[in-house]
Amino acid sequence: MLISRAELRLALAAGLCNGFAAMSGLAYGFYSPLAVVSIGTGSYGGAIELGRQRLLGTVLGSILLLVGYWGLRDLPMPLAIAITLASLRLLGGWLKLLVGYKVGGLIVVMGWLSHSTDLGTWIPLRFFWTVFGVLVGLLSLRLFWPTRSLDTILQQYGALFSDLRLTYQDLAQRLENSTRAAPGIADYKRLRARLISLRGLRPALTLELGEGASHHPSVRLVQCLDDACSRLILMVGGMVHRAPTLNDSALIEQLHQGEAALLRVLSQRLEQWEAQLSARRRTLPLPPSSALTLPQAWLDLNHELADPSLNRIPLERLERIAARLLLCRQAEQAMQDAERTWAGLLPR
Q1: 4, 247, 288, 340 - which has most CB atoms within 10 Å?
Q2: Measured CA distances, 43 to 4, 128, 137, 151, 155 (Å)
Q3: What tens digit of pLDDT does each residue of 275-310 get?
Q4: CA distance 102 to 269
Q5: Looking at beta carbons, which pairs linking 312-318 to residues 24 or more positions away fall under 8 Å?
Q6: How confident is the model over 245-251, as a mean pLDDT?
């Protein structure tokens, strides 16, 4: 597909702004489509934050431009601009502006160098067109093929579940084929990096939902999925540091086969989670309809762990096996806890 809906929506909103600016006859109308483009590339929640920062940056830059231009007239112009920009950076940091201070900096420099003779006209018109562009950008994200933060976040979690599922399948295959090399630390770090990146999208969802967002079912579902992912990825990290040893006895091989069976079931369950997230339609996704069924080979481990012959195995190897079984049990529990919480968020 050459043009996506998001690109078409952005072009339509910017075009409408540009057309209105041309018809209005007011000067500096090009700032309106620029504002649309600056906030219209993400979700609605993200656009609210970008629009807020752009407006704050515009106000802050305009105020400092007026104060600096009239209050530092006796200083050389480069020094006066430098002092004003430094003040803008300090105030922008205090107000926690990540993007807005750049907009303010442009206003200071352009106003001082290009519009010093008409600041009384340029500043109000620029602010008006910026506000208009932000409003049009927000409306376009709500009306034309809406892009909501929850859709983006759940899509990203689905992709993370797919990556995690493949990692679990690899772990199971290595155990079944008696291949003792576990996935490297790079696999664990990649999964952790994706989860941390996903957490960066959550503020946009909170902002989009407004007051009381922390109790909203959407936010609670995202928190539930995040907790489950964190525990499931932690299991991968533990397996990396506790890889099986070579030349294990038949009993230990049987224990590893129980691990492999559980990993297969967990990977299949992750595939169901991914399918449930992708199948949602404007409502909270449904959890899997049936409860998680544990494989018999995993359930039989309680009997095998009571075998007296385990006492002949070196203590270090027993500790490694116990740690791996504990990690598997924690992953199983994490999935069951998540599905229980997930089901409790749905309307009765």
Answers
A1: 288
A2: 14, 24, 11, 9, 13
A3: 988 877 677 888 888 888 888 888 877 666 655 655
A4: 46
A5: 313/249, 313/252, 317/245, 317/248, 317/252
A6: 59
What does CATH list as the number for 149-344? 1.20.120
3-state secondary structure (DSSP) of residue 282: coil
Amino acid letter at 105? G
Contacts of 213 (CB under 8 A, 6+ apart): 205, 206, 207, 219
pTM, two decimal places:
0.68
Q: Kindly state the tokens that stand for 275.
A: 């399918």
Q: What is the pLDDT of residues 71-90, one digit of tens each?
A: 888 888 889 889 988 888 88
> Quick one: pLDDT band at residue 242, thresholds 50, 70, 90?
confident
CA–CA distance, 70 with 80 (Å, rounded to integer): 10
Taking residues 227-235, report their average pLDDT. Answer: 92
Choose among 50, 25, 56, 22: nearest CA to 36: 50
Q: What is the pLDDT of residues 91-111, one digit of tens each?
A: 888 877 777 778 888 899 998
User: What DSSP string describes 188-257?
Assistant: HHHHHHHHHHHHTTHHHHHHHH-TTGGGSHHHHHHHHHHHHHHHHHHHHHHHHHTPPPSS--HHHHHHHH
Does the pLDDT of residue 127 top 90, yes or no? yes
Instruction: Answer for the pair 68, 84: CB distance below 8 angstroms, yes or no.
Output: yes
Q: Is the dihedral angle over the CA atoms 107, 110, 113, 116 positive or is it negative?
A: negative
CA-CA distance, 339 to 331, in Å (whole number)? 13
Q: What are the residue boundaries of the structural domains of the chain, listed by start?
A: 5-143, 149-344
CB 137 within 8 A of CB 34: no
3-state secondary structure of 140: helix
Rg (CA), the chain: 28
